Amino acid sequence: MPLLIRNGEIITADSRSRADIYCEGETVTRIGAGLEAPAGAQVIDATGKYVFPGFIDPHVHITLPFMGTFAKDTYDTASKAALVGGTTTLIEMCCPAKNEDALGGFEHWMAQAQGRSACDFTFHMGAAKFDAKTQSQLREIVSRGISSFKVFLAYKGAFGVDDTELFGILGLARELGVVVTAHCENETLVYELQRRLLAAGKTDPGQHHESRPPAVEAEGVHHLMTFAELTGAHTYIVHLSCKRALDEALAARRRGVRVGIETLIQYLVLDKTWAELPGFEGAKYVMSPPLRDASNQEHLWNGIRDGLIQTVATDHAPFDFKGQKDMGRADFTKIPNGIPSLEERINLLYTRGVKAGRIDLHTLVNAASTQVAKTFDLFPRKGSIQPGADADLVVYDPGYRGVISQATQHMNLDYSAFEGWKIEGRPSAVTVRGQVAVRDGAFVGDPARGRFLKRAPSRAG
Ligand code: URP
Ligand code: ZN
Ligand code: ZN
Fold it and tell me: Which CATH class name applies to 54-375?
């Protein structure tokens, strides 16, 4: 059924106009004033509302065996939560362990998503080792439509790669024109600091950030940047959390290293005092890199505003408080890492960013949609509103006032890290390739509409 979105204020990364948007099939076909809806078309009145391109979360975990347990969401729950929050495309980290095959992992991750996702999806392909077999499997995976890899410089013994493997993966990425996304923390330093704290009897969740101070992240960034410089690979630092790490990345960029920078909504709105809450409540706020001193936040907001930081993601990694986070009651190193935020990213960016005067609407669209699409070979099909683009649209109501609560969220989780927080806006309608998926906070779409997005590498040379 054709769709007409009437009289909204269309906001893209670089333009603002009041117009109607007409969608046929799966794409936007016309934009203009006074467009007529043919009989049978669905019409959404967007008067008084913004219309944004569908948001893209460049860093989520849905299928995730991790720290002795499994992330709670499935594609069924996560894709609906994403859509209710305005996110229409997910880029998931496909993370086979060191002792697993890359290709087997890719097929397993794909099987969890195919036919089970309400929104479109793709993957960053995790490489936890680099031998001849892995190399040929990574080539095969790229030929199947993947244009980004993922490496961990952290998580010793699980996903982490050593320097020889890192050098090989970056070299292959350079040859294939693939972007390498990286978790940057020095795993040896983390391990030694954890041991020191535990030996001193320091076991509570607030010790997590003591074991991973900014220097540990900055060292990881510096390390990756040196390897990127000497291989010429295109890199992308995931979940950058603090000024010290940002300074390392920007210094590398100034000397010509190709690097994109992602921060997370959590680092923008939460600080380390949340992980210090008494009564083990702090475990809800344990993630890696950890929440930082609040003084870092203005550097991150300014970095987004000034275009130094390209994207804002969630690193959605959902673990229940009861039965999962509490595996670490006696030892903070056993608390599964992650602060789930998939559903809240856009409303928090709007409320704490745009409404608070830290960023403008175009920056919101750029960091949460357009730059993601450009970095990961999805633009202009995603991340834009123009004829020919997928009709993934977010009609956003700036007049909405509400409160975040676990009781009303769609993420499959027994807590919300933002319980009771006020939001000043939310999507009133969300479409996935021309079909309405969300109306006023409720999922009303096709639970299996989501498609795997094939991407072709574009970074050769
Ligand atoms: O704490 C986090 N970030 N959990 C998910 C795994 C990762 O490092 O991205
Ligand atoms: Zn990570
Ligand atoms: Zn992650």
Answer: alpha beta
**59 CA: nearest ligand 1 atom:** 9
- H or E element that contains 371: helix 371-375
Q: Which of 200, 201, 131, 143 is nearest to 169 (CA)?
A: 131
Name the band, by pLDDT with cuts 50, 70 and 90, for residue 156. Answer: confident
Question: Which letter does DSSP use for residue 54 in this model?
Answer: P
d(C-alpha 433, C-alpha 54), whole Å: 10
DSSP alpha helix (H) spans, 36-186: 75-84, 102-113, 132-143, 163-176
Q: Residue ranges per domain, the chain?
A: 54-375
Name residue 311's amino acid.
T
**pLDDT above 80 for 313:** yes
The rounded distance, in Å, linking the Cα atoms of 108 and 100 is: 11
What integer pLDDT is reported at residue 422 of this predicted model?
A: 98
d(CA 118, CA 123): 16
Q: Three-state DSSP class for 421?
A: coil
Q: CA distances (Å), 170 to each of 55, 127, 180, 350, 371, in order?
A: 29, 11, 7, 36, 22
Q: Atom 9 (ligand 1): residue with closest C-alpha?
A: 315
Q: Cα–Cα distance between 308 and 340 in angstroms, integer?
A: 25
pLDDT for 461 beyond 80:
no
Tokens at residue 67, please? 């720290």
Residue 382 has pLDDT above 80, yes or no: yes
Give the atom of ligand 1 at the shortest distance from the alpha carbon of 287.
Answer: 1
Q: What is the mean pLDDT of the chain?
A: 97
Instruction: Name every residue whose Cβ is closer than 8 Å to that of residue 342 and which is 6 or more positions away in sequence.
Output: 57, 60, 73, 78, 81, 82, 85, 87, 314, 316, 318, 411
Nearest CA to ligand 1 atom 1: 287
Q: Which of 337, 339, 342, 413 to mutate to test the pocket of ligand 1 (most atoms within 8 A of CB)?
A: 337
The residues near 143 (Cβ < 8 Å, ≥ 6 apart) are none
CA distance 452 to 345: 22
Q: Is 258 in contact with 170 (CB distance < 8 Å)? A: no
